[in-house]
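Example 3.
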Amino acid sequence: MKQLLVAAAAFTTLLGTAQSATYLVEPTHTSVGFEVSHFGTSTIRARFDKKEGTVEFDRAAKTGRVEINIDTTSINSGVAPFDGHLKSKDFFNVTEHPTAKFVGDRFAFNGDKVSEVSGTLTMAGKTQPVTLKAKNFNCYTNPIFKREVCGGDFETVIQRSQWGMLYGMPAIAPDDVRLVIQVEAVKQ
Amino acid sequence: MHRGRFAALLLACSVASPVAAQPATAATYVLDPEHSFVQFEVLHFGTSTSRGRFGPVAGSVVLDRAAGRGEASLRVATASVDTGLAIFNARLRQADLLASDEHPEAFFSARQFRFDGDRVAEVRGEFTLRGISQALSLRALRFRCRQQDGTEVCGGDFEGEFLRSDFGMTHSLPLVANRVRLLVQVEAFRR
């Protein structure tokens, strides 16, 4: 009996609770972008066009884990020479580091809505802690997929120097960079 | 010169060309195609914000900071819309949304400039999309002029919003929100 309980406990840990579910990131409503001030005048925006990821999410237990993989070669600012510079060793160094990754394993809730996701962000081969703050969060039944979709808007401000991206600091662009993330994920 | 004749001459000048003659303090700025873009934001299923970019924005702005006046004439190719996803871009260009074939450009034409000191604070004008023109206010989130390589560069971030139904874009209402937020980045070189 005791062995059975231990086995059951191990099984539960392995699978998560009954309410834990896997969600697959839906690329048409998932976007990872950033904003940085240009000479203190205007805001430059760029985003990564290719990304994929999964979310494990348990609303009842208020736990979750998210992993988003970003193809750094897909960076898109709308200005080709600037994209080329962003891909260079001055910034993302995409030849050596073609993937950036966010792993969030600590979910904070406000009621039954996710309010923060903390974890690590790996860019240009360096991993640093980050906390994404939810601006919006909601779950709904999508009429096309006929499945539950959960998602929201997340933001944070990071210091690019922590990932070794020092170019043009501080005259052209400051250390602070705002990450602006849209994510929706479909329950599997 | 006799004072009365001078005054008469000034009056004649101002009557003859009220728009074309810029006062000595006015300067024309031409938009920098590397730093002039429009991002739109619209809420999807009340859950997350879909974004896309138009640009570069082309055109010029006349600023008379001493007189507190300005004039903007801007345009952007509607087919330049870029959400990062080709299939989404193609859908947005169709006739029931941007109608890019029939209306290849959107326009913003403005003559009502509000200043806060010598900084542009708000620009009010007419926004034309899908051939439909509506009043639009763009509020400055920041504005600054600087010297760069011997040329004055002025620019900032502006935000505004409109209802897409006002421009006949009613597809997927209300699941995708009617309210569209615009975030405009603009920098321009003094000519």
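The helical segments of chain B are 3-16, 86-92. Chain B is about 10% helix and 55% strand.
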